[in-house]
Structure formats: C-alpha cells, structure tokens
C-alpha cells in the first residue's frame, strides 16, 4: 500500500485520475466512475490516493460516505479510532451542516490510518481536499489514552476544515484568514474530542490548549499580520490562544443564555459571513453575539483580538 498526492496545474474540478492498465489499483476519496476518482481544482487542497491493495471499511454518516483504510485494521480497531472518529464527525456535521446545494461528490471522504513509532514522533496528520491521512502512535500502553486522544483531535481538526470547505462551496472565495481558520478548527476539534472521548487523557489534551489564565502579549489580528509577513513562530498561538478565545466566547454565550445556546448556534453565520478587510470578524456575527451576551463580548474581543 502506497500513497500519492495529486493536484495537476490548471485542473478545473472536472478532472479525474485512474490507474493505468496493469498498474496497481487506485483508491481515492471521490469515485466518479469505474476506477476513476475526482482531482480537486487548483484553488482547493491537494488530494491523497491509495495505490495497491488495501483493506477498507465503509461507514455512512448522514449523507456522508466515509471509506476507511488502515495499515493495520486490527490495531486501529483495538484503539477504537474509527468509532472515535465517527463520534467526533457526527458532532461536527451537526454544527457545520452540509448545504443543500452541495454536490454529491462532496459527500465522500477518505480516511487513512497509518501507525508511527512513538520513538519517531507523535500523532500527526495531513488533510487533502476530501481525504485525510492520520497517524496513530505505536507506543507504550501507559501513553495509549493520550496518544489516541491526540490522534482523534488532529483528525477532528482537519475534518472541520473539510466540512467548512463544503459549507462554503457555493460562496465566492474570499482571502484566507489563517488565524480564524486554524483557531476555529482547533477549538472545534477539541470540542469534538470531548464529545467522542470524555476520558481523563482527552481532558488533559483539552487543558493543554485551553488556558484562560494565559498571558496575552499580542492580539490574534496582530499575530496574523506577523504570520503573513513571514513569522512562522506565531503559528502555534492560533491553536492555543485562538482556541481559548473561542472557548471564552462560547462560555459567555452559555452563561448569558443559561446554557440554552452556545457558539454552535452562531457558527454558520460566522463561516458564511464576510470577514472585514483587516481580518476582523464579520460585523453581522459580532452584532449577534452582542445581542446575546452584551458587553462581555467586547471585553473578550479586546483581550484576545485587538492588542
């Protein structure tokens, strides 16, 4: 079993790829005919393809069709990764619903599980347009819970990106705001993790990123400007400071409504809204939050965004 990444220059979204006669079997995320798979257009992420014989499992989740491939199906089953992923994805599809206009091809996902030795690094992953490569860690039993939680978090983070891409598929493209994309994906990856896995190791992973006492030296908008200017060192703060920012907003909404509402109820307005030119959140979204949670929203914005 081998892997290939493809996104031909100039691909228009109608391009396909298939194995040549006599070549190893190919498997992709979006089948478009006998042995053929969709290649994403140039403005999308690349796609990953499995070459050779591979053990697969199919799961239907609402209107999503998921194909799982694993280098060791027995180990993946032992760790419960498919069940954890399905539980996380089930939550994410509720808060990031598929638009009725979404093309049938957008409803197919490919998830590939690859083991990596604990001595060579931790959990990781890479997302394609509709495919995802997820590393799970082969290590000591004492770290199994933490490693599995990290793998679930990374998978949920990347799948959030993919679901947002589907949600926005009928909208004109707008400039990418890295701080927004990564902070939201990480916060909802963490929320999905605790929905799927409420264990102490998963809660420890949550606490690693969500810290309301963290010192804020620069706001997320300033950090985003630095990143766009080439400062790669600030990227990790989109995960930690960014996820904590969204947790503060989420908590303010829950507190103001007695738990009746949360950030989940306003997420689509944010994701389909138009960002301000300076990277600030859509005015319509902020106005909605102010109507619900009042001045606490402005205090949170001032603390985490404006400095």
Summarize the structure in words.
There is one protein chain. The protein is of the alpha+beta class and 307 residues long. 43% of the residues lie in helices and 17% in strands. It has ten helices and ten strands. The chain has helices at residues 73-79, 81-95, 144-167, 178-196, 200-209, 220-228, 235-256, 267-271, 283-293, 295-304, and strands spanning 2-6, 16-18, 26-27, 36-38, 47-51, 56-61, 64-70, 108-117, 124-127, 131-138. The strands form three sheets. The chain has a five-stranded mixed β-sheet, covered by helices on one side. β6 (56-61) and β7 (64-70) form a beta hairpin. The radius of gyration is 20 Å and the shape is globular. The mean pLDDT is 87.
Q: What would you report as the Rg, rounded to the nearest angstrom?
A: 20 Å
Q: How many E strands?
A: 10
- Widest sheet: strand order? 6-7-8-10-9
Query: From the helix content, strand content and strand pairing, which structural class follows?
Result: alpha+beta
Give the helices and strands as they follow along the chain: EEEEEEEHHEEEHHHHHHHH
Average pLDDT, all residues: 87
Shape: globular
Strand content: 15-25%
Share of helix, binned: 40-55%
The biggest sheet, with number of strands, parallel, antiparallel or mixed sense and barrel status, is: 5 strands, mixed
In short:
This protein has 307 residues and is an alpha+beta fold. The chain is built from ten helices and ten strands.
């Amino acid at each position: 079993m081998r892997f290939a990444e493809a996104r031909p220059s100039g691909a228009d979204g109608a391009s396909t790829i298939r194995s040549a006669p006599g070549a190893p079997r190919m498997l992709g995320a979006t089948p478009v005919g006998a042995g053929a798979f969709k290649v994403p257009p140039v403005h999308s992420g690349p796609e990953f393809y499995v070459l050779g014989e591979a053990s697969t499992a199919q799961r239907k989740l609402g209107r999503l069709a998921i194909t799982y491939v694993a280098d060791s199906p027995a180990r993946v089953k032992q760790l419960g990764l498919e069940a954890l992923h399905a539980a996380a994805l089930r939550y994410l599809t509720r808060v990031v619903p598929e638009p009725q206009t979404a093309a049938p091809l957008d409803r197919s996902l490919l998830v590939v599980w690859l083991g990596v030795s604990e001595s060579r690094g931790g959990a990781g992953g890479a997302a394609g347009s509709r495919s995802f490569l997820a590393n799970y860690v082969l290590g000591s039993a004492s770290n199994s819970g933490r490693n599995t939680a990290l793998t679930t978090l990374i998978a949920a983070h990347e799948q959030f990106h993919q679901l947002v891409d589907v949600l926005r598929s009928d909208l004109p493209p707008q400039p990418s705001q890295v701080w927004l994309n990564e902070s939201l994906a990480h916060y909802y990856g963490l929320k999905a993790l605790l929905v799927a896995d409420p264990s102490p190791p998963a809660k420890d992973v949550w606490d690693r990123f969500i810290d309301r006492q963290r010192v804020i030296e620069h706001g997320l908008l300033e950090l985003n400007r630095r990143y766009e200017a080439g400062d790669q060192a600030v990227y990790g703060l989109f995960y930690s400071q960014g996820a904590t920012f969204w947790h503060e907003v989420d908590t303010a909404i829950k507190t103001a409504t007695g738990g009746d509402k949360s950030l989940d109820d306003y997420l689509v307005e944010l994701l389909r809204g138009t960002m301000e030119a300076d990277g600030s959140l859509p005015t319509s979204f902020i106005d909605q939050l102010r109507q619900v949670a009042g001045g606490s929203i402005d205090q949170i914005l001032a603390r985490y965004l404006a400095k």
